[in-house]
Amino acid sequence: MRHLAFGICGVLLVPPFVPSARWRDAPALGRIAFPTSGSPSAQPPFIHGVLLLHSFEYDDAIQAFREAERIDPSFAMAYWGEAMCDNQPLWFHETLDKGRDALTRLRAARAARRVTAREDGYVDAIERLFGAGDKPARDRAYAVRMGELSRAYPADDEAAAFYALALLATIPPARPDPAVSLRAGAIASAILKRNPRHPGAAHYALHAYDDGRHAAMGLTAARIYARIAPASSHARHMPSHVFLPLGLWDEAAASDESAFAASVDWVRRHGASPAQQDFHSLSWLQYEYLQQGKFAKARELLDPVRRALEATAGPEAHAHVESEIGRGFAPVALKSELASMRARLVVESGSWSEMAGRPTFDNVDELLALGIASVKLRDIARAEAALEHMGKAVDLAPDADNRELAGIMRLELAGLIEMAKGNRSGALAALEQAKVHEAGRPRPNARPYPVKPAAELYGEALLEAGRPRAAVTMFQESLARTPRRAASLIGLMRAAKAAGLRVEAARAARELLAIWRSADADRSELADARAIVRRVGPP
Predict the structure, then answer these.
(1) End of a domain among 433, 452, 471?
(2) Residues 478 and 459: beta-carbon distance below 8 Å
(3) Is the peptide bond before 450 cis (omega within 30 degrees of 0)?
(4) Would 475 be classed as within a structural domain?
(5) In this structure, which long-range contacts are made by residues 303-306, counting pairs with CB atoms below 8 Å and at least 24 apart in sequence?
(6) Sign of the C-alpha dihedral, residues 418, 424, 425, 430?
(7) Is residue 19 part of a domain?
(8) Measured distance CA(374)–CA(388) in Å, rounded
(9) pLDDT (tens digit, 9 = 90+) per residue, 329-358?
(10) What φ, ψ does residue 333 adopt, rounded to 5°?
């Protein structure tokens, strides 16, 4: 999420006041047990708030906790819940002033009415979370205290769940720590065995195994979370964090279709800006459609982003109030997301002519697509101009991670240009270098970056250069990194056929046909795959 092509910022909208009757008819968010010393009438909105908190539905959770505070002004744990919403640990965001304000009100409530020793542990932990020091130090101190609380009350699944989340929050961005994440995953998975409807356990297990290497360990949690919390758009999306890296395209697409639909419904019900729809899920859904060969449907998904951009630019954009947590898509982020979706559509579908008349680009994803399209259309001068801009992107990258990604894209584009000029050895050397750099990066846990995987591009170049057996090896390497990716299966099928590896070609063709069983009917790749299967016969 930190790549040049994508960023999240802007505003989210505060939903209107929700009456207490809502808690009696609350939609499904899972099931927890969290006894506290609040009054019985304040318990339903409090529990509802915790369920929302576990699924990162922070704005709605704040409203639920405030309803509990209104019913019982001395309910200390209600203020604890509100403060917890002001820390979004896995989104690397906090509203420190609001969190500390909630703590001030919590202290007053605790002075008015005693709480249990167990509740004191929660309060002490959140005091550390919003206490003195920089955020990493506060996150570590909070995690230590939650670990102590969880051990002191081993039957308290909420303490264990928030401890698992706290452990994940101590891992710095873009610096995976498997020892910590797997420990958090084990804690969350153990809760899920005791309570298969616990949304936090399912959610945090998915984040724990969301590193590109351990996705299969989260498959049970993904399938549970996909069904237990349908009221949360984020809960509907999160299973795709396991389904997508494993190439389970049907399940991934179903999750993200559901997630985006839920966000559209939320915006409608709350009178919110279209910019608050879940475009994160929508962009994943587009990639999943592309892998399923549903290029027409993938193209249609550009329209909601365009409409949201128009809404943020129009007078109606000022009719909405700001959110509590400052989450949402600002116009610049929406514009970049739209550019990335356009780029993936062009690269995956091979619709190179769509870039022919485009005079500008909005991010590095689109720049790469423009450069590749220019090579395919034999406009080498334009491709070289794109290569020059890609060099500037490397220099302007905000951090080492983005700099490395832009450098891989530059090598990819340079290799294609050299291939078009007839310099095969120079082209293959550049593409091999891009592949080596890509292989040194963590395995993708989401849509792959760059938008054209380097190993896949190298395999296509090897096939074009008349080296089909080497291309077979490269496509296999690409598929090991991004399982069941359609373009790599197509490349493997064609390279194996050219190399005389009939069984390997048929195996790849059958897998493609299974994935593309609902694909656009006019794709030539389908005809190629069927012809290969017919020649080889049944497995």
Answers:
(1) 452
(2) yes
(3) yes
(4) yes
(5) 304/260, 304/274, 304/277, 304/279, 305/279, 305/334, 305/337, 305/338, 305/341, 306/338
(6) positive
(7) no
(8) 13
(9) 788 889 999 999 999 999 999 999 999 878
(10) -75, -40
Distance between alpha carbon 262 and the CA centroid of its chain, in Å? 16
As a whole number of angstroms, the distance between CA 322 and CA 329 comes to 12
Strand partners, 149: none
For residue 163, which amino acid is it?
A: Y
Q: Tell me how many domains the chain contains.
A: 2
Radius of gyration for the chain, computed over Cα atoms and rounded to the nearest angstrom: 25
3-class DSSP string for 39-54: CHHHHHHHHHHHHHHH
CATH code for the domain in which residue 530 is found: 1.25.40.10
Shared-domain flag, residues 414 and 439: yes
Measured distance CA(42)–CA(62) in Å, rounded: 14
Q: Same domain for 438 and 527?
A: no
Count CB neighbours of 20 within 10 A.
15
**Phi and psi of 467, rounded to 5°?**
-120, 70
* Interatomic CA distance for residues 433 and 462, integer angstroms: 14
Please list the ranges in the chain whose pLDDT falls under 50. 1-21, 25, 321
Residue 464 within a domain: yes
Q: What is the pLDDT of residues 12-55, one digit of tens each?
A: 222 333 444 455 545 689 999 999 999 999 999 999 999 999 99
Q: In Å, what is the CA distance from 193 to each residue of 48, 205, 234?
A: 22, 12, 22
Domain range for 363 is: 350-452
Residue 465 and residue 434 share a domain: no
